[in-house]
Amino acid sequence: MTTTPDTRPENRVLIFDTTLRDGEQSPGATMTHAEKLEIAELLDEMGVDIIEAGFPIASEGDFKAVSEIAKQSKNATICGLARANYKDIDRCWEAVKHARSPRIHTFIGTSPLHRAIPNLTKDEMAQRIHDTVTHARNLCDNVQWSPMDATRTEWDYLARVVEIAIKAGATTINIPDTVGYTAPMESAQLIRRLIAEVPGADEIIFATHCHNDLGMATANSLAAVEGGARQIECTINGLGERAGNTALEEVVMALKVRHDILPWDTGIDTRKIMNISRRVATVSGFPVQFNKAIVGKNAFAHESGIHQDGMLKNAETFEIMRPEDVGLSGTSLPLGKHSGRAALRSKLKELGFELADNQLNDTFVRFKDLADRKKEVYDDDLIALVRQNEAVSDRVRLKSLKVICGTEGPQHAEMTLTIDDEEKSVDATGDGPVDATFNAIKALFPHEARLQLYQVAAVTEGTDAQATVSVRLEEDGRIATGQSADTDTVVASAKAYINAVNRLLVRREKTAPNADVKGVGYMDAGQ
Ligand code: KIV
Ligand code: ZN
């Protein structure tokens, strides 16, 4: 067994990314196996210290993803989540043990509300924590333990169970603000007090894990670091349950830009932030809000005359960091229909895409087609173009679509789909072109999924802009979000719907041995 103990200099904060576990728990944010591997590789390359790759007992798919990520990881510690029972912990170890540096992360809800669910007394829970952490530590010498809902756990009990976990061998104690309830001063104070008062606390690393229900996750995480935490748990774009988690890009850039008052270093190559942010937005189906700090489309955009004037004279007047620091090219030089393959390759490289020759050829054909329809092709158009064909499982594919619409209804959609390599066609009607299109998909590929969300956004400006469409479907509690971009909004809508259907098929294949695993169901935490 090879592990790397997390002993780092005092001023170093470890970045623990849980996009693939807590982030993927967001309703609708399902990623395919290949997408998870790709995101893990990007996280590893950008310098994330610990990647929480999944919840191995949750499904065969999660187990395989964590095992593969463990095998492929070059630098990062690979961690898997396990509830407080031996079965979960054993399964987690089976998956992470392949890593150069594996970690088991085990947790149990310690607040009164959470203790009531498995109906354990304080003493029974304390015993379980002792037994399960000891079991994990016998398998792996890098063990993280979390008292879920720590910020609503009575102080005396929290201090008691943290001490038990440390004595049982936990090397990292994570203090989750599971419901985004704490506030910065309280967050700092809690960690400071645990370190000062719990025996053995100075020998392990404290981590902070904040949810964003009150919009304070990033502030709470940074405050926890001021209180002594040396590991921040976060996700790309703040993806996560409900209002999400602390966003990796926010804490990392805050530590960089305000190093004068937040003097802690991370190992993150910040120039890789924008690329991974865009990639996670695409594969999770959760577009980044325009005004999101650091990674939003408007984060470096200046509209008002006064701001533009100031920017032209000195960028520092209205920018506290340079766009290049997070991987933006700064200026956007559009390509057009006369641009050649070399220009496209170089632009894509600048945007973080290194395509193989055949992929470049495919993209070039689609780029020319887009350039014929659009005067200028911007960076965001290109990104949408490269990604729109990165299909999911592709059991269902759009072959052709012709829509007849206008003031005289009903609108018609003539569609051909390739379903499991067989072509099927239909002519469907509907209340508007999008409704007719979706009815055509339902006629060709019957399913019970309900449309929960249909959202259209323009990637770039002008009437020839590419539209990005997001579609969210729900079927028996399973949610899948699909996304696509095209200059034709109806075509983008069809592709987004089909993308969501393909993701739903992936979701169907996930067979959870315990149906409530993803909902943090630890009720069967028996050993
Ligand atoms: O939010 C939370 O409490 C969690 C735990 C599993 C650490 O995600
Ligand atoms: Zn969480």
Automatic annotation (TrEMBL):
Principal EC category: transferase
Region (Regulatory domain): 397-527
The keyword Amino-acid biosynthesis appears for this protein: yes
InterPro entries from the UniProt entry: 2-IPM_HCS-like (IPR050073), 2-isopropylmalate_synth_dimer (IPR013709), AIPM/Hcit_synth_CS (IPR002034), Aldolase_TIM (IPR013785), LeuA/HCS_post-cat (IPR054691), LeuA_allosteric_dom_sf (IPR036230), LeuA_bact_synth (IPR005671), PYR_CT (IPR000891)
EC number: 2.3.3.13
Catalytic activity annotation: 3-methyl-2-oxobutanoate + acetyl-CoA + H2O = (2S)-2-isopropylmalate + CoA + H(+)
Domain Pyruvate carboxyltransferase: 13-274
UniProt: Mn(2+) binding residues: 22, 209, 211, 245
Cofactor: Mn(2+)
Pathway involvement of the protein, from the record: Amino-acid biosynthesis; L-leucine biosynthesis; L-leucine from 3-methyl-2-oxobutanoate: step 1/4
GO MF entries: 2-isopropylmalate synthase activity
SUPFAM superfamilies in alphabetical order: 2-isopropylmalate synthase LeuA, allosteric (dimerisation) domain, Aldolase
Keywords associated with the record: Acyltransferase, Amino-acid biosynthesis, Branched-chain amino acid biosynthesis, Cytoplasm, Leucine biosynthesis, Manganese, Metal-binding, Transferase
Pfam families recorded: HCS_D2 (PF22617), HMGL-like (PF00682), LeuA_dimer (PF08502)
Entry-linked NCBIfam families: leuA_bact (TIGR00973), PRK00915.1-3 (NF002086), PRK00915.1-4 (NF002087)
Family: Belongs to the alpha-IPM synthase/homocitrate synthase family. LeuA type 1 subfamily.
Stated role: Catalyzes the condensation of the acetyl group of acetyl-CoA with 3-methyl-2-oxobutanoate (2-ketoisovalerate) to form 3-carboxy-3-hydroxy-4-methylpentanoate (2-isopropylmalate).
Quaternary structure note: Homodimer.
Protein name, UniProt field: 2-isopropylmalate synthase
Gene this chain is encoded by: leuA
